[in-house]
Amino acid sequence: MRLSRYFLPVLKETPAEAQIVSHRLMLRAGMIKQASAGIYSWLPLGFKVLKRIEQIVHEEQERAGHIPMLMPTLQSADLWRESGRYDDYGEEMLRIKDRHDRDMLYGPTNEELITDIFRSYVRSYKDLPLTLYHIQWKFRDERRPRFGVMRGREFYMKDGYNFDLSKDDALHAYNRHLVSYLRSYERMGLQAIPMRADGGPIGGDYTHEFLVLAETGESEVFYDSAVTDLTFGDRDIDYDNVEQCAGVLEEFTSKYARTDETHDETVWADVPEDRQRVARGIEVGQIFYFGTKYSEAMGATVQDADGNQVPVHMGSHGIGVSRLLGAIIEANHDDNGIIWPEGVTPFHCGIVNLKQGDEAADAACEGLYDQLTKAGLEPLYDDRNERAGGKFATMDLIGLPWRITVGPRGLKNGVVELTNRRTGESEELAPEAAVAKVVAIYAGV
Fold this sequence. Notes:
Elements: H1 21-28, E1 32-36, E2 39-42, H2 44-63, E3 67-68, E4 74-76, H3 77-83, E5 94-97, E6 103-106, H4 111-121, E7 130-139, E8 154-164, H5 167-187, E9 192-196, E10 206-213, E11 219-224, H6 242-253, E12 257-259, H7 265-268, E13 276-291, H8 293-298, E14 301-303, E15 309-311, E16 313-320, H9 321-331, E17 333-334, E18 337-338, E19 349-353, H10 359-374, E20 379-382, H11 388-398, E21 402-406, H12 408-412, E22 416-420, E23 426-429, H13 431-443
Parallel strand pairs: 3-7, 19-20, 19-21
Antiparallel strand pairs: 1-2, 4-6, 5-6, 7-8, 8-16, 9-10, 10-13, 11-12, 11-13, 13-16, 14-15, 17-18, 21-22, 22-23
Helix pairs in contact: 1-9, 2-5, 2-9, 5-6, 10-13
């Protein structure tokens, strides 16, 4: 993409309403614009990152054997009355009526709707196990929406639902989701710690939240510092292997890590004092096993091998896709702007022309742009007739991981400058070598 043809409304000043880093930088980098309290338009740069995150989530869910679909944003209140949650959910649920005076709601989650789909089509244990998921806009009418996309009213979320014949099978689905989430977060450049949590309005005895440590986190968390040494890495996981998935869960949850809602001072005292940490965290996902809570209430049963009708065991599993974008920025920024991890960057590399209109510089930039594009990458070429300082400031603000700077002086020596946004380190390379290095970096992402 050529910046002269792109819509990137960056701001020089920080809007007064932005209280945390991610909100400030998303507004300044032209990623979002507030439409009303807690509701945002996603501008091109923000939308690109949102789709990068979504793609990682899709890839890891499908790798784990989960099946994508799409459910509507509006739901019938009748289903929620059937489960008993319509009146219990509280004022966060946006309740509306259609022209025929039927009660509707803007879905905050989809347990009822997916259970209705399941009971309409699945009859036998032979059709199990089954996990369906979708990525869809949700709405929760927060009393005080704040912090930009971190606590908005409208948000983009992946929610998945497993249906299993037994508790053991459902707990394997729980473990499988934990594994897929760990892999997803690491691909996004995040360390998200699974912490024992409270089931809240969804319910369930088994539940873990995934939290990213950040000063602006809404939750106080207590953890053994040993959990921060754990990495998922490039493990070859067989998602059908019950013992292997359970082993990963044990590895990542055996050390103490809890939110303030489930913190236990007695157990905490057993953690070596030099490893006790108290911090704040941003929730970016949660997994639940809630057994037959919804299947019994809504008649979601299957015939087992003995011919008996039995309620299925269920769980739900969510990732806050739009919230993740804010969390990534909170964990990856400096005084000059965002620093995108390679896995989610909107553009793979920036190209800065120090002297637009110079024949050699223009030709070199065009060559770099073409080579990167042919290699399957998306470069952002700043071809504007602006001063160099302004171009560098824009690139730093929007946070592309790599930048190639082209100027007449370097070209006389046959080199361009390749800069790492995270470290600030630069090296002079021949144009072809700079392209080859960037391509090699993304080949491993």
